Amino acid sequence: MSEKKRISISKPVSQYISSLSRSTANTDAEESNVSWSKHINRMLIDYISLLEEHTASVLKKIDPEVVQALKIITKSHSESLFLYKYGQDIHKFIFSIYFDEFGLNDMDATIKHVLIEDFTKLSLTKIESLALISYLQREQCTQ
User: Fold this and answer.
1) Tens-digit pLDDT profile for residues 99-135
2) Half-sphere exposure at residue 110, Cβ-oriented, CA atoms within 13 angstroms
3) Considering only CA atoms, which of 90, 70, 71, 72 is closest in space to residue 130?
4) Which one of 52, 54, 92, 131 has the minimum C-beta count within 10 Å?
């Protein structure tokens, strides 16, 4: 029986796959493919459930005005949200999208206030930041 491993989302998928043991001497290629598919599916399910679990706690932690401001900022930058990397500074990431969208001169006073006064003071863990980005991605896809 194979040993179950905890999946780390801080590793790229290719790194995770290469770290798994590859003892396929007693199995044919089809069984091996099924085994790899199960590993990848399990990893994706763990990833999605982890994000869902943390999304609820992040949304409780963040003021609704901040969430609304983030939705406005990222409205036309849905592709940029997919460039976020686990562990990246979420404040710098969101500010770069903000400056791309509005520039320095056209800063909306309300959004600017929410970003500077509320968002920058938020302390989010890496997984909470990823959950927030994931939430914003889903929101952009449903609009």
Assistant:
1) 887 776 666 777 778 888 888 888 989 989 999 999 9
2) 8
3) 90
4) 92
